[in-house]
Amino acid sequence: MPDLLLELFSEEIPARMQRRAAEDLKKLVTDALVERGFVYEGAQAFATPRRLALNIVGLPVKGQDVREERKGPRVGAPEAAVQGFLKSAGLSSLDEAKIEKDPKKGEFYVALIERPGRATQDVLAEILPQIVKSFPWPKSMRWGAASREPGSLRWVRPLQSIVCTFGPETEDPEVVRFSVDGVEAGNETYGHRFMAPGAIKVRRFDDYAPALERAKVVLDADRRKDMILHDARDLAFAQGLELVEDEGLLEEVAGLVEWPVVLMGSFDEAFLDIPPEVIRATIRANQKCFVLRDPRTDKLANKFLLTSNLAATDGGATIVGGNERVVRARLSDAKFFWETDQKVKLEDRLEKLKSIVFHEKLGTQYERVERIAALAKELAPLVDANPAEAERAARLAKADLVTEMVGEFPELQGLMGRYYAAIQGEPVSVAAAIEEHYKPLGPSDRVPTDPVSVAVALADKIDTLVGFWAIDEKPTGSKDPYALRRAALGVVRLILENEIRLDLPAFLAAQHGRLSSAIYRSNSELAARPLKAALSIVPDPRLSAEFTKFMEGFEKGFRQKMLEMALLDLEDLLSFFADRLKVYLRDQGARHDLIDAVFALEGQDDLLMIVRRVEALGRFLDTEDGANLLAGFRRAANILRIEEKKDGRSYDAAPNQQLVHERGLPEEKVLLEVLEAASAHAREHVMREDFEGAMRALAALRPAVDAFFDKVTVNAEDAEMRENRLRLLNAIREATRTVADFSRIEG
C-alpha cells in the first residue's frame, strides 16, 4: 500500500508549539482523508525547531467506487420535479433512468449513479493547501509582498518549502503537486541550519528520516530528549555529580535543537551562597540549562549543563565560554538582589503593598493582607495553631512580592519570603507558612500539615473565593481566569487531609463582612471614574455641586446593592464547594451514588463529616446488615412512592400511635416499637458521629418490616388505617435519613 510523506519546512517553530502542532497536523490530514472515505493503517507526526513532518502508511491508490440508486418522482410527475431529479442525479434525460413499480405508490423513476473512486493524489492536492492555510497556530504571521493581499498565508514563521510525496514501496513515489501562496510542493528538504544546510532530495519516509540524520537533524523529539538526558547523566557522573532532572526544561530544550550536544560549564563557587532555588531559576530561565548536585552533600555544585545545537570544531569551548559569561552576569544580578533584599525587613515592605491593586473591585494587596491575617487568627484555634503566629505569618505572607528577587523571578514568591523571614529571626512555623500558604497548587501538590501553614493557607483561599464571588467573577464553563476551582479544591484538601472540623458557612460570611468595605469603596470609585473624568474636563462649580449630590445618592444605592448581592452569593459559593468535594471524592474512588445520598441531606456543611458519612456508608453497604437495611428501606419506599403518586399527596405526618395500639395488628405494633427504638439509637450514634453504628441500629428493622408486609395489608379498606400505615412506612424512610438519602443509592 502507498505511503504519504509530508513536510512543512519553515524558518522556526517555537519549542512550546511543536508537540501540539505535530498532533494538529496529523489529526487534520487523517480526519480529512477519513471523511472522504480513505482509510489508512497508521500515521506518525514529528516536529523539530524548523519542520513539521507527517508519515501516513497504508493509503489506497484511489478511493472506492461509488454505486448508488437514487429514487426519483412518480411517473407522470410535474416537469419541474422531473428536471430537479435529473439535475441532482447527473442525468441528461429520463432515458438514462429506469422505472420501478411499488404496489402501493405506483411507478417511479430510479437513477443508477456510478462514480469511480478519485485518485488519492488528487484528493491530497485538494485538501492539503486548505489545511496549511487554516492551520491553528496559537500565534502566526504574514510576510513578504503577499502579506498585503487579503487571505494570504499565515504561518508561525515564514514557510520556506513543502515536501509531499506519495507512492508504493516498490516504486518511486510521485510528488503531489500543489502550492500554497507560491510555495510549490516538491521532494527537497534541508538539513541542519549550520552543519548541513544544503538541499536533500527525498523519496519516502524510510529514506527521509535517515537522510535527515546524516544531515545532522534528529527528527523524533522523544529521541532528542533521550539523547540529552543520557548524555547529561553521563557527563554529571563523570564529574562525580548528579543531574537535577527537570522534565519541563528537558521538553523545552529538545524543542530548541535539531542536533543535541550536551556540554558542561561552571561558575564561581561564591555564588553557591545564594539559595539553590534562585540559582536554578536563574540558570533555567535565562540559559535553559540544567543544574547539578553533589550527592555527598546533597547541595548544588558550581557546574551546569547546556545543550548546544551543533557539534563545534573546538569541542564546544567557545559555546561554553559564552554561556559561562551570561550565567556569571545573571548570578551576579541574583546575588545583588539576594543581598539587597536582606537589608529591608518584611514588615517594612508592607507599606508598598498599599500601591499594588489586587483587583480593581477588591482593593489593594495591603487590604487583602489585613483580611487574611484576621481570618488566619480566627482559624488558628481550630487547627491547633498559635493565633499570634498565624496572624504574623499571614501579615508577612505577601511581603516578598515587592522584593527584587520575586520581581525578577515571580515563580519564587513565598519561597523567598520564607528565606527572608528565617534570616530576620521569625519562628520556624511563621517562615514555613509564608512559603506554604500558596499550597496546594494542584491535585498532585503537597498539602501543608504545619498548623500555622494550614491556617494561613485556608485564610488566603477563602478570602480569594469570597472576594470573587462577591463581585460576580465566578468560573463559567471551562473558563476560570482566577483559578477559583483550584482554590476551592485546595480548601477541601486542607480540611480533609488535616481532619479539620470547620463551620465553613460561618467563616465565609465573616470574611465577606471584612470584604464589604473594600468592595464598596473599590466599586464606588470604579463606577464614578467616568463621571469624575468628565467633571475634570468642565470644572464648573454648579456641576460640582450636582455631582456631589449625585454621588451621595449613588453611594447609598450602591451600598444597598452590595449588601443584597452578598446575601445572594453565599449559598451559591457553598454549592461550589460541594461540587469540588464531589470531584475530590470521585477521584478518591468513592461511589457517585453514595456521595449524592449524603449530599441530599440538608445542613451538610461540615466537609469532614460528609466524607466520613460517605466512607461509612460504603463500608456498611458491603455487609449483610447493610444489604438488610437497604432491602427493608426499598420495600417500604416503593409502596409509599406508588401510593403517594396515586393519591397526589405525601404521608409525612407522624403515625398515630394510639390508633396502632387500639386497632393495629400485632406485627404493626411490633414495627412501631422497633422503629421508635431503632430511630432513637440511630440518632444517638449520629450525635457521637458513629455513622456505622447508626446504620446497624436501623438494620435491626428488617425482621419487623418483613413481618409487617407478610401479615399487614397496607391498602386497607379502612381509610384511617390505610393512611396511618402509609405514615408508618414514611417513618421508616425518614429514619434512614439520619445517615443518608437511601433513595439515591443504586444497585
Class per helix and strand makeup: alpha+beta
Proportion of strand residues: 5-15%
What is the CATH-assigned architecture of the largest domain?
A: Orthogonal Bundle
Radius of gyration: 37 Å
Distance between the termini: 51 Å
So what's the CATH class of the largest domain? Answer: Mainly Alpha
Helix share bin: 40-55%
Describe this structure in words.
By secondary structure, the chain is α+β, with helices and mostly antiparallel strands. It folds into 5 domains: 3-61 and 119-214, Alpha-Beta Plaits; 66-115, no CATH class; 221-341, no CATH class; 359-582, Hypothetical protein af1432, CATH 1.10.3210; 607-744, Isoleucyl-tRNA Synthetase, Domain 1. The strands form 5 sheets. Strands 1, 2, 3, 7, 8, 9 and 10 form a 7-stranded mixed β-sheet that branches. Strand 7 and strand 8 form a beta hairpin. Helix 10 (387-396) packs across helix 14 (451-470). The protein is flat. The chain starts with a strand and ends in an 11-residue tail after the last helix. The model has no long low-confidence stretch (mean pLDDT 89).
